[in-house]
Specification:
This protein is α+β, with helices and mostly antiparallel strands and 282 residues long. It is 17% helix and 28% strand.
Length: 282
């Protein structure tokens, strides 16, 4: 390793600058959402079995809730526009705008060229957790999803119940696509209930036992018509390992709610991004 330069400590001491200041970021009307959810009624539900995934649909202006049942369990969430799967959740931009972990008031943003809010988090029963002494927090947008390719690379073998494969099977069943056709649509996730961070010494992505308990939930408001897929991760609460049949795993419940009639008067689905798409070429 090269010797540090004489001004090494001065360079390290430079103060950081936030890449994307959010003072001008459109603010969700949380008061409206909270008023709308007060009279909402459940219209659909699906139980996601352990080590499997399931899909669900949420009309714009409705709510959906992911709840822990039976035991501590994390889930990997994908979202698409219900009528256009080319528009999907963009975890990297959501991370850049809100930080490494999402909670109430944060939004799940869609990919280019759409870049608009897909869903707004309205309630988070784990918001109390904050950031722990290890730098860990809950509901991350830094992990990609457990997958059979990385599993094969690191451990060998053919494991088919990684979240990546679970999401492929669920999306294929929902859409009629083949596994090969569905796979390109599966994307980096919101790791619901997962407790993660980066180690200070090596900068490696870590996981630890999720603080989630039965009855905890993460709730969202659909800003556009949504198709969702949720995988109940084979790591269970991710206290030891993932991509394994050894961890204790539990189901997750997804419920869809309609607001009371008239509760959202004047509200409209989020429009696509206003950039003209010229890219300096015309």
């Amino acid at each position: 390793m090269p010797n540090p330069p004489p001004d090494a400590e001065t360079r390290r001491a430079v103060a950081p600058v936030i890449c994307y200041p959010t003072e001008t970021l459109p603010v969700p009307d949380m008061a409206l959402y909270h008023a709308a959810r007060a009279g909402m009624t459940r219209i659909a539900e699906v139980t996601v079995p352990p080590r499997e995934a399931a899909t669900f649909r949420v009309p714009a202006g409705h709510f959906f809730r992911i709840t822990s049942v039976d035991g501590p369990q994390v889930g990997d969430l994908n979202l698409w526009h219900a009528e256009n799967m080319a528009e999907r959740f963009y975890s990297g931009k959501s991370r850049a705008l809100h930080g490494t972990h999402l909670t109430a008031g944060h939004r799940m943003w869609s990919c280019f060229p759409y870049l608009r809010p897909m869903a707004t988090i309205t309630e988070d029963t784990l918001d109390w957790y904050g950031i722990d002494a290890y730098g860990g927090s809950v509901h991350d947008v830094i992990g990609t999803r457990c997958d059979p390719y990385t599993h094969n690379l690191l451990s060998g073998g053919q494991y088919h119940h990684c979240c990546h494969s679970n999401l492929i099977r669920a999306l294929a069943a929902e859409t009629g696509l083949s596994a090969a056709e569905a796979e390109p649509h599966v994307h980096d996730v919101l790791n619901v209930f997962m407790c993660t961070g980066f180690t200070r010494d090596t900068g490696q992505y870590f996981m630890k036992a999720s603080p989630v308990r039965p009855g905890d939930y993460l709730e969202f408001f659909a800003e556009i018509d949504l198709l969702g897929a949720l995988s109940a991760c084979p790591g269970g609460d991710c206290s030891a390992e993932h991509s394994s049949d050894a961890a204790a795993c539990y189901p997750l419940l997804v419920e869809v709610f309609a607001p009371a009639p008239g509760a959202l008067n004047g509200w409209e689905p989020a429009p696509v991004n206003g950039y003209d798409g010229g890219h300096g070429l015309g």
